[in-house]
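Deliverable D5.2: sample structural annotation.
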Amino acid sequence: MLVATVHTSIINVGIMIGSAVSGVAIDADYGLAFPLWVGRKWGFLV
């Protein structure tokens, strides 16, 4: 049971970080397509 809880927590942290970085990128006028690149790079890091 502990493994399932930790796995869910790690996924939630990844979603939170990806959303935050994408929001900063959109706010910095990189455009609405830039979150796709953030997700791609984040996927390669993990």
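Annotation notes: The chain has a mean pLDDT of 86. Helices lie at 2-27, 34-45.
The annotation will be released with the project's public dataset once the embargo ends.
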